Amino acid sequence: MKRQKRDRFDRAHTQGYKAGLSGRSKENCPYQTQDDFRSQWLGGWRDAMEARNTGLFR
Asked: Is 17 left (phi over 0), alpha (psi -120 to 50) or beta?
């Protein structure tokens, strides 16, 4: 059985989350021209920054 690719929006959110955990700036978003993907990426970035601020990751 073939594996299905993950949803592209989910992938953008995950990439943003990883970028936020590593401390990258939100200005480094790779989706500058694609608003839907940019909002997903920024949502993941914000979630990661919130998790860092609450002490889940150091």
From this structure: alpha
What distances in angstroms separate CA 22 from CA 18, 25, 32, 35, 46, one per listed residue? 6, 9, 20, 23, 12
pLDDT at 45: 97
What is the pLDDT tens value at each position of the chain, 58 positions in all? 455 667 899 999 999 999 999 999 999 999 999 999 999 999 999 999 999 888 877 6
CA distances from 46 to 2, 21, 30 (A): 33, 10, 15
Indicate the SS3 state at residue 28. Answer: helix
